[in-house]
Amino acid sequence: MSEQGPFIDLTAPQDAGQAAYNLAAELYPICRSITGAGILATLQTLKSRIPLTIYEVPSGTPVFDWTIPKEWNIRDAYVKDKSGKRVIDFQKSNLHVLNYSTPVRMVMPLSQLRERLYTLPDYPDWIPYRTSYYKENWGFCLSHTELAALPEGDYEVCIDSSLEPGKLVYGEYVIPGASSHEILFSTHVCHPSLCNDNLSGAALCLGLAKFLSGQKLHYTYRFLFVPGTIGAITWLAKNEAWVDKIHGGLVVACVGDPGHMHYKKSRRGNAPVDRAAEYVLKNNGKPYEIEEFSPFGYDERQYNSPGFNLPVGSLTRTPHGRFPQYHTSADNLDFIRPEALQNSFEMFLEVIQVLENDQHFVNTNPKCEPQLGRRGLYSLFGGHRSTPAMEQAFLWILNFADGDHSLLDIAERSGLHFSLIRSAASALHKVGLLKKAGATSDDF
Amino acid sequence: MSEQGPFIDLTAPQDAGQAAYNLAAELYPICRSITGAGILATLQTLKSRIPLTIYEVPSGTPVFDWTIPKEWNIRDAYVKDKSGKRVIDFQKSNLHVLNYSTPVRMVMPLSQLRERLYTLPDYPDWIPYRTSYYKENWGFCLSHTELAALPEGDYEVCIDSSLEPGKLVYGEYVIPGASSHEILFSTHVCHPSLCNDNLSGAALCLGLAKFLSGQKLHYTYRFLFVPGTIGAITWLAKNEAWVDKIHGGLVVACVGDPGHMHYKKSRRGNAPVDRAAEYVLKNNGKPYEIEEFSPFGYDERQYNSPGFNLPVGSLTRTPHGRFPQYHTSADNLDFIRPEALQNSFEMFLEVIQVLENDQHFVNTNPKCEPQLGRRGLYSLFGGHRSTPAMEQAFLWILNFADGDHSLLDIAERSGLHFSLIRSAASALHKVGLLKKAGATSDDF
Amino acid sequence: MSEQGPFIDLTAPQDAGQAAYNLAAELYPICRSITGAGILATLQTLKSRIPLTIYEVPSGTPVFDWTIPKEWNIRDAYVKDKSGKRVIDFQKSNLHVLNYSTPVRMVMPLSQLRERLYTLPDYPDWIPYRTSYYKENWGFCLSHTELAALPEGDYEVCIDSSLEPGKLVYGEYVIPGASSHEILFSTHVCHPSLCNDNLSGAALCLGLAKFLSGQKLHYTYRFLFVPGTIGAITWLAKNEAWVDKIHGGLVVACVGDPGHMHYKKSRRGNAPVDRAAEYVLKNNGKPYEIEEFSPFGYDERQYNSPGFNLPVGSLTRTPHGRFPQYHTSADNLDFIRPEALQNSFEMFLEVIQVLENDQHFVNTNPKCEPQLGRRGLYSLFGGHRSTPAMEQAFLWILNFADGDHSLLDIAERSGLHFSLIRSAASALHKVGLLKKAGATSDDF
Question: Rounded to whole angstroms, how far apart are CA atoms B176 and C130?
Answer without folding.
Answer: 82
